[in-house]
Amino acid sequence: MTTVAFLTPNFNRQDLFPTTLASMQAQTLEDWECWLVDDGSDPENYDAMVAMCVDEPRVRVSRRNREPKGACTCRNIGAAQTEAKYVISLDTDDIIEPFCLQQRVDKMEQHPELDFAIFPSLMFEDEPNDLGLWWNIDTGEDLLERQFRQDAICQGTGSIWTTEAFRRIGMWSESLALWQDIDLYFRAYIQGYRYEKFFDLPPDLHNRCNHASLSRASFYNRAKQESRIQVVTDAIELLERSGKSDLRPWARYMVAEISNGNASARHFDLSSKITDFARTHKVINDTEYATLKRVRQVYEYRLYRLPGIKSWLRSASQNFTCRSLLGRVRVGDESKHLQANQEALTA
């Protein structure tokens, strides 16, 4: 049995994958395999990927053989076929440190009760360490609450799962256009999957920032916003089914951000959909519902052009303001942010 399987989707990434492949080949733990599943790349790109891996038998290159199209389908194809003990989702533009696999496997072997484990990672743009930013840091707070505040401590590549647990949880959702990792960890935290975070260890992953994917035009397209709503409503309903209805108000920050964002993008039906659901499921109270409805009306009737309305919008948004350290902590500034975070908690 192979120790670890990388689940790696590809779509026209022949320019970036050589660096990712080199980081896999540099691992001190050499007992790994990579399921590199192509998601419909141009023929020349696919051929280039095959040529890159021809002398690396641990990389299994194939084409996606079923619908739907998407990176998560490609990852799941690999997860369903591997016989490895553990799986790690690794994208074709990310880079891992040579000690990554050894570090993660060592911790899983030391804690055989775990379903998954979370490790620290850094963000970069062109070269590792060029931004000097953590993906996020550990504050000691509940990870489910932090995720509802959009302060997630982990994205898909920052963890290692036992293959058995990853299959049991249902693997990646293939129906979402956005927030697939948020959905995965909501399911894990809410359903009580056993995990540990090891942020006392050195970062073993460099996660590339893709500014193009974060553009406003792309982010607020309808399909992506529908997916965000689906992730939040599914999480709230899962809380209810899991006997954790008392935690539903944690979702109020996400609800407000989604509602106001869709109102500003003129998706008024989506804004109304998430707030109606949230009031029905006791995520927000009637006063909060009325505030979000008024915000929506400001955008719908373009009332923000009137004197004083922009100031009111800022004031209304403060009712749903929450702390998030995601992508904001520079290496070396951890103590400063932790102190500020603690002061905010006790204020």
UniProtKB/TrEMBL annotation:
Record-linked Pfam families: Glycos_transf_2
Molecular function terms from GO: transferase activity
Glycosyltransferase 2-like domain location: 8-168
SUPFAM superfamilies: Nucleotide-diphospho-sugar transferases
CDD domains: Glyco_tranf_GTA_type
Coiled coil region boundaries: none
Keyword line: Transferase
Protein name: Putative glycosyl transferase
Species whose genome carries this gene: Neorhodopirellula pilleata
UniProt lineage: Bacteria, Pseudomonadati, Planctomycetota, Planctomycetia, Pirellulales
